[in-house]
From TrEMBL:
InterPro entries: C2_dom, C2_domain_sf. Residues 1-119 form the C2 domain. It comes from Forsythia ovata. This is Protein SRC2-like. It holds the Pfam family C2. PANTHER family: C2 DOMAIN-CONTAINING PROTEIN (PTHR32246:SF22), INGRESSION PROTEIN FIC1 (PTHR32246). The lineage of its organism: Eukaryota, Viridiplantae, Streptophyta, Embryophyta, Tracheophyta. SUPFAM superfamilies: C2 domain (Calcium/lipid-binding domain, CaLB).
Length: 199
């Protein structure tokens, strides 16, 4: 295998199942809730669930998204899975809350359970603020590692790969959780948000 042309990676399947006991962010009308998923808050990795129009503060989606993650993104700390909940409104959607969790911690948990797991996590107001009282339930699965052909734009690939490795090294030596905004978008060797969601 020519490692100059291929990268070692895993498929990551994420299913947003439901949320419960969400705070009511609307004074009038029903709450219609959806979730946005991204890695490190990077817009280019962002995917969203359909809007639940029926269950209000206890939405259920059972919606699966698929990503490809290069092995360094799985085995090193630094990449955060970010899930934000919003209430759909005609005059602008309203933020409800979010969860943040490292991909490495998800992988370590799943690895001990055969590659998949299910979690219930408390929803926070902001990335490091108080809990809302609500909970988010999701399941996920990592595939076995496989080789994937690298993008043709080698310079871009090397730039983002080097950025990622420098930030991981900085975290390991300085103990600082550095953002990985430059290395998370589709087409790099870290995260590839597959075009089609899996229903």
């Amino acid at each position: 295998m020519d490692e100059n042309k291929y990268v070692y990676c895993r498929k990551f399947f994420l299913t947003l199942i439901s949320a419960e006991n969400l705070p009511n962010v609307r004074k009038f009308f029903e709450s219609k809730v959806y979730a946005k998923v991204s890695f490190g808050g990077d817009k280019k990795t962002e995917r969203r669930t359909p809007v639940d129009k029926h269950n209000e503060l206890n939405p259920a989606w059972n919606y699966t998204m698929k990503y490809t993650i290069a092995e360094p993104g799985v085995i090193h700390y630094g990449i955060q899975l970010v899930i934000k909940l919003y209430c759909k409104r005609k005059l602008g959607d309203r933020y409800i809350g979010e969860i943040h969790t490292p991909i490495k911690e998800l992988f370590d948990r799943a690895y001990s359970q055969g590659g998949s797991a299910m979690l219930d996590l408390p929803i926070m107001q902001g990335s490091a603020s108080a809990e809302t009282g609500g909970m988010l339930k999701f399941s996920y699965r990592f595939s076995q590692p496989q080789w994937k052909e690298k993008p043709r734009f080698l310079k871009k690939l090397l730039l983002h790969g080097a950025t990622f490795l420098l930030r991981v090294a900085g975290q390991a030596t300085l103990g600082v959780d550095l953002p990985l905004t430059a290395s998370l978008h589709a087409g790099t060797n870290i995260i590839d948000a597959d075009t089609l969601n899996v229903k």
